[in-house]
Design a protein that fits this description.
The complex is a heterodimer of chains A (300) and B (319). With 300 residues, chain A is mostly helical. Chain A contains 13 helices and no strands. Chain B is flat. Classes of the chains: A mainly alpha (300), B mainly alpha (319).
């Protein structure tokens, strides 16, 4: 795992050390057809991956009367779509619900997973293997299959349509991943550092807070942002556990547009742009940690 | 919990006093593991167990839930529509991981080892590999609900990007009703979207796994005269096999679910997968029947996992 974390940084793996390449090799730098083909294919694929986003943004800026046109770019950019969709729908409420859910679930996951991960990484206790296995296996359950069971639970507790319901379920679904990543991260920090701090007189708790935690910060940040993004994007539970339109998260609210008689794509996509901007900004923050974070649990 | 805490664990105390050590241990267990376990019990294990129980009842949302034995399962067995949906789901389960993982491994290999041979380097990535990784990974951070919405528009037969593109390069004959018409076409379009949204994840995952392979193994292969293909099949693939297998299981379960994509994107008459069928029964208030379908889905994903573990088993290679 250690090697994966080192080599998987954001910079290209193969960088010629400056000055190590003698001049003559430069002359070999002709474009061979295969290199050209590979680059072309890579760019084409990149375009394929980006095109739907472009479509989303262009449609979001399209005036309503040009929606049926086949011209790719609208005549003029219609920024007021963003304002109109805000005024005419319950998306403001939906955004608020989503913010509460993602924020709440993230805090909850952090509070619960960090101690658990610390303990699992540091202690060899009876049932440690079972605990990790449980974490893995439950990760496999599809939310759809748990849907009715969860619905029944919250129905009995009379908690349907409550923000808390969605905070709790999102936190529960993300717990496994957070524990898994954090266990790997904390496990890679030598326990000797803590022991040294304890010999110097801090308590075990103090050693954890002041020594291990700062060192595990990249892992913590990754787990936090991942939880936030997945809760922000969650759809199935938002759809089933809350039925009142103004208590549903943004992903569900956006899809309520489609149920209407005609789909107003420009509004739909203006709302979608609002929904993805925070995610992309957050992703930009953890992008360099994503690889090491994702592979911490699975690669070795 | 905080009542009987000793004031401070000085090293001698921790080392010498048995009571402190035991207390220390249990304090940690209670404080650190109890909460997550409680969470699991309430929100994952308990709904799961309840689902199993209610699948044997005729619960319809009210206060009564009569035990009806295996009636729901018998009903499922005789339900044509259930079998139709299951057929689609099983096709997704088998085909999607194959497409996605093959593409993921291929791109990852291109990115980590597809570059020109440079002096003194056995393998080298293509220029700008990190940019490609980010771009390919992009769909993974997007909500599957939004992905479905965007692709619905891309596939749209009247104003969609895909038909527009085909029309503009003179291939009008290839324009299709991608989602609303033919079953096979709708299934294929759905597979393409799921593969599209997950490929990036596997490119990143597999290129990390490939990056962890020591360079001298590649150098040795190169010295022995292995070409690119031989290097890939004899060196790279066996060494990342564990990661591939994990990814296979994960992708299969995701494909079996495919709930949001199909529910949002595909008109119900064209294609229905089992989770969507479950959801419709749930909306109709047939909770008992819906949970029975959920249980079958869970059992299917477990069987799938076991099969992949079985046929994917190879000798562990340490490096």
């Amino acid at each position: 795992m250690a090697t994966a974390t080192q080599t998987a940084g954001p910079e290209p793996v193969e960088k010629q050390p400056a000055g190590s390449a003698p001049r003559p090799t430069r002359t070999k730098r002709t474009f061979r057809p295969r290199t050209l083909v590979i680059t072309a294919v890579a760019w084409l694929l990149a375009a394929l991956f980006l095109a739907p986003y472009l479509e989303m943004i262009v449609t979001a800026l399209r005036p309503a009367d040009e929606l049926r046109d086949r011209t790719y770019l609208p005549d003029k950019l219609h920024w007021s779509n963003f304002i109109d969709v805000w005024k005419e729908s319950s998306l403001g409420d939906n955004l608020q619900v989503t913010l509460l859910i993602s924020g709440g679930a993230t805090v909850l996951v952090l509070l619960v997973s960090l101690p658990a991960a610390y303990y699992t990484a540091r202690m060899r206790f009876r049932g440690r293997k079972w605990f990790l296995l449980l974490v893995l296996v439950t990760q496999m359950f599809q939310p759809t299959a748990l849907l009715v069971g969860l619905y029944r639970e919250f129905h009995q507790l009379d908690m349907l349509n409550s923000v808390w319901t969605l905070i709790l379920t999102n936190a529960a679904f993300n717990l496994a991943f957070a524990v898994w990543i954090l266990t790997a991260y904390i496990g890679s920090i030598p326990a000797e550092l803590e022991e040294a701090a304890m010999v110097d007189g801090t308590s075990r708790f103090g050693a954890m807070i002041r020594v291990t935690l700062p060192l595990a910060l990249p892992g913590v940040v990754t787990a936090v942002i991942f939880t936030f993004i997945t809760s922000w994007n969650e759809f199935v539970m938002g759809l089933t556990l809350s039925t009142e339109p103004d208590k549903q998260p943004l992903t569900v609210g956006i899809n309520n547009f489609i149920g209407a008689y005609t789909v107003q794509w420009n509004y739909l996509f203006a709302a979608s742009v609002v929904a993805i901007v925070p995610v992309i900004v957050l992703f930009a923050f953890i992008e360099r940690h994503v690889v090491s974070g994702l592979t911490a649990g699975s690669v070795k | 919990m905080a009542v009987v805490l000793p004031p401070r664990f000085t090293p001698e105390r921790v080392r010498n006093d048995r009571r402190y050590r035991t207390l220390d241990k249990y304090r940690f267990i209670v404080g650190f593991l109890a909460l997550p376990l409680l969470f699991y019990a309430v929100f994952v294990i308990s709904p799961f167990l309840q689902a199993i129980y209610y699948s044997f009842t005729d619960w319809a949302g009210g206060t009564t839930a009569n035990f009806v034995g295996g009636d729901n399962y018998v009903k499922m067995w005789n339900d044509e529509k259930f079998w139709d949906s299951l057929q689609s789901s099983l096709l997704l389960l088998v085909v999607v991981p194959l497409i996605t993982l093959t593409l993921g491994i291929f791109f990852a290999y291109m990115i980590t080892a597809g570059g020109r041979h440079r002096r003194g380097r056995a393998v080298s990535g293509v220029a700008g590999s990190s940019v490609y990784k980010i771009v390919y990974f992009f769909p993974q951070v997007l909500s599957i609900a939004l992905i479905a919405v965007v692709w619905q528009q891309v596939y749209s037969s009247r104003s969609g990007l895909l038909n527009g593109l085909l029309g503009s390069v003179g291939l009008e004959s290839l324009e299709q009703r991608w989602l609303g018409g033919d079953y096979k076409l709708a299934l294929f379009s759905t597979m393409a979207v799921i593969a599209w949204s997950f490929v990036g994840f596997y490119v990143v995952l597999f290129s990390a796994a490939m990056g962890a392979i020591p360079k001298d193994i590649y150098e040795a292969a190169l010295l022995d005269g292995a070409g690119r293909a031989a290097t890939f099949f004899r060196v790279t693939l066996p060494l990342i096999w564990d990661t591939v297998r994990t990814g296979w299981i994960y992708m299969g379960i995701q494909a079996l679910d495919a709930f949001a994509v199909v529910l949002i994107m595909v008109p119900p008459h064209a294609l229905k997968v089992t989770p969507v069928y479950l959801y419709e029964r749930f909306r109709e208030g047939q909770f008992g029947y819906a949970t029975a379908i959920g249980v079958v889905l869970l059992v299917l994903s477990m069987i799938f996992t076991l099969i992949v573990m079985r046929i994917g088993r190879r000798d562990q290679i340490e490096y």
